[in-house]
């Protein structure tokens, strides 16, 4: 019997965000944890009318960003100790970004660590070289990163 619960956690969306020929992501430094990387996104909230609405809300909160060409890419089922976490992954293109507009508890609580915005080339070696979480997303991006400009329309 597996130690992973069959409870389904609240689903999340993730934004595979392209800024021209670069992938926009966060380098996460959290006190007491190993350095890791993530892409913008978060939990679906009751007031979100759709998954795409969640995506637009999250990129605005986390990056002060407006995006276009929102395209469903994949849905990942991530097994965790606390249950299965569904991650709806969308591709999109950056229209504008103003980090001064970022808001949310992650930007006011020092215990949440730093969210440094970085851009990586669309190269599988760049993805493989970092600790991208969740792992399933890192695997997906390593396999698809060079095709993203053609997949996002």
TrEMBL record:
Gene3D superfamilies: Nucleoside Triphosphate Pyrophosphohydrolase
Pfam families reported in the protein's UniProt record: NUDIX (PF00293)
Residue ranges of every copy of the Nudix hydrolase domain listed in the record: 8-136
PROSITE patterns from the UniProt entry: NUDIX
Top-rank taxon: Bacteria
Family: Belongs to the Nudix hydrolase family.
Protein name listed in UniProt: NUDIX domain-containing protein
Organism placement in taxonomy: Bacteria, Bacillati, Actinomycetota, Actinomycetes, Streptosporangiales
């Amino acid at each position: 019997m597996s130690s992973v619960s069959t409870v389904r956690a609240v689903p999340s969306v993730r934004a595979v965000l392209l800024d021209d020929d670069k992938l926009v992501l966060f380098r996460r430094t959290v006190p007491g944890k190993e350095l890791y990387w993530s892409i913008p996104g978060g939990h679906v909230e009751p007031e979100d009318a759709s998954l795409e609405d969640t995506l637009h809300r999250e990129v605005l909160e986390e990056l002060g960003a407006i995006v276009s060409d929102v395209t469903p890419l994949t849905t990942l089922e991530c097994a965790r100790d606390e249950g299965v976490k569904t991650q709806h992954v969308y591709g999109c293109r950056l229209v504008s970004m103003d980090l001064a507009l970022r808001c949310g508890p992650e930007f006011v609580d020092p215990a949440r660590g730093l969210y440094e915005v970085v851009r990586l080339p669309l190269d599988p070696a760049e993805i493989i070289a970092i600790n991208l979480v969740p792992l399933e997303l890192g695997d997906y991006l390593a396999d698809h990163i060079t095709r993203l400009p053609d997949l996002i329309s």
